[in-house]
Predict the structure.
Amino acid sequence: MLKKGRETSSLPCKIIPPPKGCEGLFPNPGNECKEPIIQLDRIGSISCDGVISGRVLCDFRPVAGVAVTLSATPPIVNFADSTPITDETGRFSTVVSVPRGTPITSGVVVTAAAVVAGQSVSDSISVTVDCIVCTNPILTLNPIEGPVGCEGAPLSGRLICDGNAIARAPITFTITSQSKRVVVNPNPAITQNDGTYSATVVPFIGINETITIVASTRIGGIEVVSEARQLTVRCVKCVNPVIFIKKVSTINCDGVISGTVLCDGVPIPNVPVTLSGPPFLQFEPEVPITDVNGVFTSRVTVSSGTLFQEAEITASAVVSGIEVSTSRIITAGCLFCRNPELTLNTPKKVIGCEGAELTGKLTCGGIPFPGASIAFILTPQEGVTIVPDPAVTGEDGSYRARIVPELGTVGTFTIEARTVIAGVLISSEVKTIRVDCECKNPVISIDDPGKINCESPITGRLTCEGFPLAGVEVTFSSPLLAFDPNPVVTDENGEFSTTATVPFGTEPQETTLTATGGGATETITVKVFCKKCRNPLLTLKAPKFIGCDGGKVTGRLTCDGVPLKGNLVTFTTSPAGAIAVSPNPVTTDEDGRFTAVLTTTLGVEEVVTIQASSIVSGTVVVSENEKIKVKCVCKHPEIILEDPCKINCEGEIRGKVKCEGLPLAGVEVMLSSPILDFDPNPVLTDETGSFSAEVTVPSNTPLTETTITARVTVNGKTITETIKVKVICLKCRNPKLTLNTPKYIGCPAERISGRLTCDGVPVRDAAITFVVTSDTPGAVTVDPNPAFTNDMGEYTASIRAGAGVTEVITIRAEAVVSREGVSSESQQIKVDCQCEDPRLELECVKKIRCRAEIKGRFLCKGEPLAGVKVTLTSPLLDFKPAEVYTNQDGYFRTSAVVPGERPYELTTYTARVEIGSRMISQTCKTVVGCERCKNPRLTLCTPLFVGCEGEEITGEVLCDHRPVEGVNVYFKVVSSHGEEYILPNPAVTKADGTYTARIVPAKGKVDIITITATAEVGDEQLKKGPFLVVVKCPCPPHEGKE
C-alpha cells in the first residue's frame, strides 16, 4: 500500500500474452486443435430431475461454440436441451427429467458427443435414475456403537417411502471430521430389497476424534436426510505393544497354543505372530494371524515317542515397528500307549428329539490319558449330530459329548469312538443306538394382532417337538377377513406373516381367524372393524416451557372413541426451525397414543406454535394448536483444549466450545501464547463447536515449556482456558533424504525406499512426496504418495509402470524438515512395459446365482503380462473389486455379485484394459438372478478307510429341496502329518446338485484325518463335517531301505 503524501509514478497495467507456439507450454501455433476431448461431470443419480453438465477442451484449452449431442441408454432420461452449446469456458449444461413412475434403474448410460476441429469425441457416465411415486420418504441411520478402532465399524439403515421399502437406491454418506482421516466404503451404498443398506466406516492411522456421519439420498424427486450420528474413532499409532501366551496344561501328542497381542491395552488384529520351540514341537500354522480380538491360535504336535519334559514356547511379533516377545514353559510328550482301552457308554433307551449324553474314558495300562481327541464314527452319517466332535479327555481320562437328532430322524445308528496316540489307532466297542425324533405333535401359534382396524399384519410360527418347521406352507381362512399373501411359507425360524384386511364398512364385531399348516391348525377370535370415521379426534399435549434439555409431546388419535393403531401423525411448528420434532411423522400405538421428542438449539428464545395432523378415512384431522415457550440461552459457556503433547516446529491445537452441554457454533476463539504463533487467529467454531489452528514454534527454540490460552466471549461473558505444552524447533543443519530405486522396471510393480535424517537423527512421521518427470502422462504410479517415515526415518512405496509405456523417467523424493524443503538426488529409471499383439481373455460364466468368481487373463504376443489394470462393468452385476491387476501369470480374478433378490434375466459383463491410447475389451453374456434360499443344505459322504488307491467322496447341494448347479464345494483336510490331497478342490456341483472328488493319499501314511466341506449358497455359508477317515498307505517293505 502507498502511504499518503508520498510521490508516486503511474505503472502501466497491461497483460502481454506469451508468444504463440512456446515449446512445451503452448504447443499448437495458430490455435490449431490437435487433441480435443469432451468430459461429462460425474454424478451418482438423477431423481425426477437434475442437471447434466460437462466441458469441451482441446489441447487442454476450453473450446466455445461447440454443439454437444446428449443421449441416454435406455432412453428414459429427457433432456430439456439435447444439443447445448459450450460457453467461453468450454462448459455446457442442461436440465434433465425422468418420467413420473419410473422405478429405480441403475446402469443408465448418458453420452455426450461432439465434433471438434473435424474430430469426433464422446464421453459417457453411468447413473442411477428414478422418479417413483413417493410422498413421505424416511431414511434412517442406525446408532453406531463406539468407540471404533482401526478395524472400522459397520453402518446400516433403511430407506422407506409411504411405508414401503425402497430397493436399489444410492445412499450417500457425509462425514464431518477435523482430521479428514476417515472414509465410508462403499459410498454410495445401495439399498437391498427390504430397503436396508450397509457400509463400513474405515479410519486411517492417526485419527482420535469424534466424527459426525449423515446419510442422504434423493428419491422420487425429494431430498431426504437421516439423523446425524456421532462416533468416536480412535486409530492411533501403537506406543506400548505387549504379547501374551495363554496358560496351557500338559500337551499330550497334540494341543492348542493361543495368546493375545495388545497395544496400549487395545487388541490388535491382523498381526503375524511367529511361534518357536524345541525341535520335537511342530506348529500349524507356524505364523498365525491375530483375529479382531487380537487373539492368535496354532495347533501344536509333539513328535511320536517324545518323553514328557518341559519345553519353552516363544511367541514374537512386530507391532508398529516395535518387536515384542514372550515365552511360556509347558510340559509336552507323546509316548506309546501300552494296553490302551477306550470305552463308550451310550443310552439304552430310545433317544428322542431332546437328545442324549455320550460318555467314556481313555486309559493306558489302567492310567487315565488326558488331552486326547476322541472322534466319533456314526453310521449312517445323516440325521444325527454329535457335539462336540471331537471331544477331549479330561485329567481323569474321561470325555463327554451329546447326541443331537434332527427333526424327522427315525432309525438305528451305530457309533464308535476313535483316537490316535503316537500314530496308533485306538477304537472303542461299536455300539448301537435307536433314535425316534419324528414330528408327532406339530403346533401352530398365532400372535395376538389386537383390535384390527381395516388391516393388520398377522404373524406366528410353526413348530414340532420344539423344532421350527421351515419351508412349510401355511393357509389362512376366516368368515370375514381376506389375507394377502395366502398361502405363505415359513422361514428358517418356522415363522410366517401375512396381512389381514377387513371389508370397508364393517361395524365393530368379533370374527375368527384360522391358520393351517404342517398338520396343525390354530383358530383365534379377533375384534375387527372398518367403517367411515364419523368423529375423528386428534389430541396433542405439549409442555408450556422447554429449555436446552428439550422436552416431549404426547397425544392420541381415536375414531368414534375407538383408538386408531398404526396411523402416521405429522407435526408442524411455527416459526420453523426454532424446535425440532423427532420422529416426524410418528406412528400411533395399539392404544392410538404417540410420543415425540422436542429439541432446540442454543440462542433460541421464542414462543413456538405446534400442531399435529393425520389422515383418517381420507380426511385430514388436525389437533388444536399448542404454544410452547422456548428459551435456550447460554449461561455457563466452557472451553475444552486438547493437549497436543510435544510440538516440533509445527503442530495443531484443537478444542471445543460448549454451553449447557451443547456445542456453540460460529464463536470466535482468540489464541495466545508467550512464544507461539497461530494460524488462523482468531478461529471460528464449526457446527459441532470444534475449532483448530496451526501452531508455529519460532526457529532455534530449544526444548521448553510454554502455555496456550484460548479466550471466547459469549453473551458478553468472557472465559479463558490455558494448557501447558512442551515445544522445540532447532534448525536442522544437515537434513538428508535418500531415495533407492531400481534401474529398470517392467510391468510388475517394484519397490522404492529411502531414509530421512536430520543431523544424523531419524525423522519420524514425515511426509515423503514423489515427483515424477516423464514424457507420457501417467507413465508410472507411485503408491502411496506421499509415504510416511517410520521410527527409523525409513519409508517405502511401490512404483508401477503403465501398460504400453516405454521411456526413461526421472523421479525424486521431497520432504519438509524444520520448515525447509529437502530433496533427494534425482534417479532415472528405464520403464519398459511394452505390449505387442495384446489379447484379453475373459472366462464366460453361463449362469450366476447370487455370486460367482470371474476370471481372465491378459497376454502380449502370447506371453502373460503382470501388473495390468483390468476394469469390469455390467448393467446388473456389482464387482468386488471392480478394478483388479493381473498376477505374474497374467491372470486376474474378482467376484461378481447380484445386488439384492431378483428373478433370472439375461445381461452382459465386460472387462476392459487400456494399453497406451488403445482400449481392449471382452464381453460375456450370462443369465443372472438371486432367489434367496430359505433352506440351503450341503451333504458330504466320506469313506471310513482309504488305501493307497484312494477313495471317492460325494455329496450334494440343495436349496429348498431343489438341486443347485455350479456351486464350488471346498474341502479342508486336517492331518497330524500334513494335508492329504483331494482332487479336484473345489469340486463343482452338476445339474442334479451332486459333486464328486477323490482322496489321493501320499505313500507312507498311516493316520486319521478329518475332512470338512464348505460351500456358499447365496449369502449362506454352509459347512458339513468334520468327518474322520482312516488312511492306511504304508511304504512297501523294500522302500526306504538302502
